[in-house]
Amino acid sequence: MIEKALKGNRSYWAWIAFLIACIGLGLNAWAYQLEHGLGVTGMGRDISWGLYIAQFTFLVGVAASAVMVVLPYYLHNRKEFGKIVIVGEFLAVSAAVMCMLFILADLGKPQRVLNVLRYPTPNSMVFWDVVVLNGYLLLNLIGGWTVLGAERKGIAPPKWVKPLIYLSIPWAFSIHTVTAFLYAGMPGRHLWLTAVLAPRFLASAFAAGTAILILISFILKTTSGFDAGTEVR
């Protein structure tokens, strides 16, 4: 199915070129940051959170929103959600990847991220954040790819993928819950010290993430002819 990404009209390749240019600019800016330090971002002792953490928080919610279309498709057997499930799961994959990239950019010494894996610390919320993000990424990548292949062939997804899909549902709740616990565990951030942070994150995630999914579906319909179906509206 990768070959589909190598076919397109002039507008498609212009869009790909624009995205590659944006990636190049981002890598250049990150290289400058690595050379001169995080001070170039305007962050410091008093302002230690900026665009990176803000985008991480938002994208965690976008990643968790895939469960909103997975639930009716798998638990309630609403097959008309088949196409939108594929979009939702791959949206979760891309959002999870961007989450980890923003965290990597926020680190002054990104090579030290390997210490989380080399020296696992179960009593650290950062360790669990790494576990849930990578686990959710893997679950959605396997599930989305398998469901996409089955949808193209017009057959039902294989039975072995359903346990992974069911596991991804509570896992979706965990990625935002762990993030909320991570924020609430910082004494220097008084506005985040609240017991309702996790449910508040989940509520905002399911609202904002689903809205992004609807907008993406609309863009796909107008640009590529991909229609998620009228039944899911």
Automatic annotation (TrEMBL):
TM region positions: 12-32, 52-75, 84-105, 125-143, 164-185, 197-220
Predominant localisation class: membrane
Location of this chain's protein in the cell: Cell membrane
Record's keyword terms, sorted: Cell membrane, Membrane, Transmembrane, Transmembrane helix
Membrane topology: Multi-pass membrane protein
Coiled coil: none
CC annotations in GO: plasma membrane
Family: Belongs to the NrfD family.
Matches recorded under PANTHER family: POLYSULPHIDE REDUCTASE NRFD, PTHR43044
The protein's name: Menaquinol oxidoreductase
Lineage, broadest ranks: Bacteria, Pseudomonadati, Chlorobiota, Chlorobiia, Chlorobiales
